[in-house]
Amino acid sequence: MDFELSDDQRQLQDSVRSVLERECPPGLVRDAYDGRRDQVNRLWKMISGLGWPAIEVPESLNGLGMGFVELSLIAEEMGRAVAPVPFMSTVAQFVPMVLETGSDEQKKVLLGSVLEGGSTGAVAIAEPGSGWDYARCETRAVRTADGWVINGRKAFVFDGATASTVLVVARSEGNGHVGLFAVPSGSVRATESKLIDPSQPLAELEFDGVQVGDDGVLVEPGDSDGAEGIRRAVERATTALTVSMSGTCRALFDTTLQYAKDREQFGRPIGSFQAIKHRLVDMLIALERATSLAYFAAMTIAEDDPRRSIAVSMAKAAAGDCQRIIVQDGLQLHGGIGYMWEQDLHFYLKRAKSSDLLFGSASAHKAKVARTLGLVA
Question: Which of 63, 107, 120, 334 could form a disulfide with 338 if both were Cys (CB 3.0 to 4.6 A apart)?
Fold first, then answer.
């Protein structure tokens, strides 16, 4: 497994960073916080025009046919810029779920609207009470003569209030197995969640007698191959979010390091004091560890390595530990200015903190690793 990026991958990374530095300044993120979405929507249209949503879609489906590492490079830069666009929901969650579980016709229809029309998608997995363990979901799917009827609630759905199509994981009342259903957003009652990070909007969805035809069933309850596809897609989404977290933490560290060089006290930069140096080193070690594990997880997915499940959990746990150190020390080393609304620092703090809780917290993934290794029952 080669950790060195190829020339093409470095060129992609540089290109994405250049575009986001130019088109997604902190002022645009502030617009998202204030509810002004015009520029955000324009940015998403531009991103769609550049073909980023098609990064992992096969060429046979009019995609770019690149791999998961390339998607991760874009996700890292999205996190670095705190971009308030539906990249995570559509490109890192919806598209992989369709690729892993959909039929050829479903892939053409569902992915075609994303690649050609710039529409967005969402995946509804988590529920109040059971969190991100979709195997314990309580949302029900009942078989009828015309298809299926979905009833239940989902929480923490990325861009759930604005997505064109929602893929919902639900349990069959017939055999108790989970399935996956494509639901038009207009048939779902969506309530936007109140968050510390409005740049990554989440929603709670209520399914009340929602009708789904047979053509909207991506995974029939009881289909073991389909259930495996859901698991693999969730691992992809978790890893993409983890890489994005490392990008956010990287931006926070760089901002803090530069502030420590510029801020003077007692006639010298505060970064020259030994106590500050030690804290910066601790931040950097945590960041490099999290980034390395995140890309190791991305590479196991790209190569379909059998270690992918445990690698994903280790990476998400490391990202959670990393954000805890970098958020705390980054805020404290900025001093009083770090608490000001006018200071852009809080964009990174809130994105890192909220992302830790999504797709399983650090503690949840540490417990999963312990179970996988047989350390606990």
Answer: 334
What's residue 1's pLDDT? 64
CA–CA distance, 224 with 30 (Å, rounded to integer): 45
Q: Average pLDDT in the 169-179 region?
A: 90
Taking only the tens place, the pLDDT of each residue in 33-83 is 998 989 999 999 999 999 999 999 999 999 999 999 999 999 999 999 999
Q: Are 69 and 1 in contact (CB under 8 A)?
A: no
Which of 127-131, 220-224, 311-315 has the lowest average pLDDT? 127-131
Cα dist. 328→153, 278, 320, 345, 357 in Å? 34, 14, 12, 12, 16
Contact 35, 161 (CB under 8 A): no
Q: Rounded CA gap, 63 and 78, in Å?
A: 20
**Confidence (pLDDT) at 304:** 94
By the 8 A CB rule, do 75 and 65 touch?
A: no
CA dist., res. 249 & res. 253, Å (int)? 6
Cα angle at 178 between 160 and 360, to 5 degrees?
A: 55
For residues 290 and 284, what is the distance between their CA atoms, to the nearest angstrom? 10
